C-alpha cells in the first residue's frame, strides 16, 4: 500500500519523483531524478568501483554484489540492471524497503524512458558514451522490476529467497543476475538481507534530518562489517554529521562533486 498522500512531482530533467507531504520529502532530487540516480549510484558508485577494481587493482571483474537501502520506486535498481547488462556484468542485488509502493505507481510514474540516453550523456562526462543509445524496452524493464514480488521476511516466502541469497553470501557465481527485494526494516533486518562481501552500497534513505536513525554510527558499522574490502558506499547527501559517522566506523570518506543541482555528495570506501 502506498504511504498516505503520496504525490508525483516533475523534476528538472523531465523525469518525475514521488513526494511525501507528511515528511516533506521526495524520493529523488528535484533537480532531476534520473540524472541524480545515474550520477550518484551508477557513476560515482558502480562505475568508479569497477574502474578501481579493474584498472587500479588490476583485477578481473565479471560481476558485482550490490546492496540498496530503500528500494522505493526501483529507479536505482533498474538503472543498475540496464548498465550491467550492457557491460556484460553479473549482478547480485539485494534491496530492502519498509513501505513498498502500491502497484498503481507503475502506471503513473514516467522516468523519461524516451530520453535515457540523453540523461546519460548529460551526466557521464563522455565516459562510456553511447551505452544507453539502443533505448530498448526501458519502461517494460523498470515495470518488471517494480512488479517483482517482495520477499516478506516474516512471511512464508522468505525461505526461497534466503536460500539463493546464501549463494551470494558464499560468493558463488550464480550464472545469472539476481535481483532480490525484501520487505523489512533495515534497522531490524540488515543482517538477514545484506550478504557478506558486498561491493557497492546504495545508501538512499530519506534525509538525515528526517530519519537520523538511518545515518547513525551504529547502523553504518553494521553495514561496514558486511562489505568487502575495496567496497564502496555512495549516497546523495554531503551532510557533515553523516560524513563524521562514516569516518568513525573506519571508512575512507570522500566529498565528491554532486549530481546536477547539488554541490557535493559522499562516497565511502572500505
Ligand atoms: C529516498 S527514498 C529511496 C528511493 C529509491 N532508492 C528509488 O530509487 O526510488 C527512501 C526509501 O527508504 C524507505 N525506508 C524508510 N525507512 C526505512 C527503513 N527503516 N527500512 C527500510 N526502508 C526504509 C522509504 O520507504 C523510501 O522508499
Outline the secondary-structure elements.
Layout lengths: L6 E4 L5 E5 L4 E2 L6 H24 L6 E7 L5 H13 L2 E8 L7 H4 L7 H8 L14 H10 L3 E2 L5 H12 L8 E6 L2 H8 L4 E6 L13 H10 E9 L4 H9 L3 E6 L6 E6 L1
Parallel strand pairs: 4-5, 4-8, 5-7, 6-7, 8-9
Antiparallel strand pairs: 1-2, 2-3, 9-11, 10-11
Helix pairs in contact: 1-2, 1-4, 2-5
Low-confidence stretches: none
What percent of the residues sit in helical stretches (DSSP H or I)?
25-40%
Architecture in CATH?
3-Layer(aba) Sandwich
How far apart are the termini? 36 Å
> Looking across the biggest beta sheet, what order are the strands in?
6-7-5-4-8-9-11-10
Provide a count of the helices.
9
Whole-number tally of structural domains: 1
Strand content: 15-25%
Q: What are the defining features of this structure?
A:
eight-stranded mixed beta sheet; Rossmann fold; 270 residues; binds S-adenosylmethionine; three-stranded antiparallel beta sheet; single chain; 9 helices; alpha/beta; 36% helix
What does this entry look like structurally?
The protein has 270 residues and is α/β, with parallel strands linked by helices. The chain is built from nine helices and eleven strands. Helix 1 crosses helix 4 and helix 2 packs across helix 5. It is globular and about 40 Å long. The site of S-adenosylmethionine (SAM) has 16 residues, from helix 2, strand 5 and helix 7.
Amino acid at each position: 500500500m502506498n504511504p498516505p498522500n503520496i504525490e508525483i512531482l516533475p523534476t528538472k530533467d523531465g523525469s518525475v519523483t514521488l513526494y511525501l507531504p507528511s515528511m516533506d520529502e521526495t524520493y529523488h532530487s528535484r533537480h532531476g531524478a534520473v540524472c541524480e540516480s545515474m550520477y550518484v549510484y551508477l557513476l560515482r558508485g558502480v562505475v568508479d568501483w569497477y574502474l578501481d577494481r579493474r584498472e587500479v587493482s588490476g583485477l578481473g571483474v565479471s560481476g558485482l554484489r550490490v546492496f540498496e537501502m530503500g528500494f522505493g520506486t526501483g529507479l536505482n535498481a533498474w538503472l543498475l540492471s540496464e548498465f550491467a547488462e550492457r557491460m556484460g556484468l553479473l549482478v547480485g542485488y539485494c534491496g530492502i524497503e519498509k513501505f513498498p509502493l502500491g502497484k498503481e505507481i507503475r502506471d503513473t510514474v514516467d522516468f523519461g524512458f524516451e530520453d535515457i540516453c540523453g540523461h546519460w550523456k548529460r551526466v557521464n562526462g563522455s565516459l562510456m558514451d553511447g551505452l544507453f543509445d539502443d533505448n530498448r524496452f526501458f519502461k517494460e524493464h523498470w515495470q518488471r522490476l517494480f512488479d517483482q514480488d517482495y520477499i516478506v521476511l516474516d512471511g512464508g516466502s522468505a525461505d526461497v529467497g534466503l536460500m539463493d541469497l546464501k549463494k551470494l553470501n558464499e560468493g558463488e557465481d550464480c550464472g545469472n543476475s539476481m535481483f532480490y527485494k525484501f520487505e523489512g526494516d533495515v534497522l531490524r533486518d540488515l543482517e538477514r538481507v545484506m550478504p557478506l562481501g558486498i561491493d557497492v552500497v546504495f545508501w538512499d534513505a530519506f534525509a538525515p534530518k528526517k530519519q537520523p536513525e538511518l545515518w547513525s554510527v551504529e547502523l553504518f558499522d553494521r553495514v561496514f562489517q558486511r562489505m568487502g574490502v575495496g567496497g564502496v558506499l555512495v549516497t546523495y547527501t554531503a551532510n557533515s554529521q553523516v560524513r563524521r559517522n562514516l569516518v568513525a566506523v573506519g571508512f575512507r570518506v570522500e566529498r565528491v562533486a554532486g549530481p546536477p543541482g547539488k554541490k557535493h555528495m559522499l562516497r565511502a570506501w572500505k
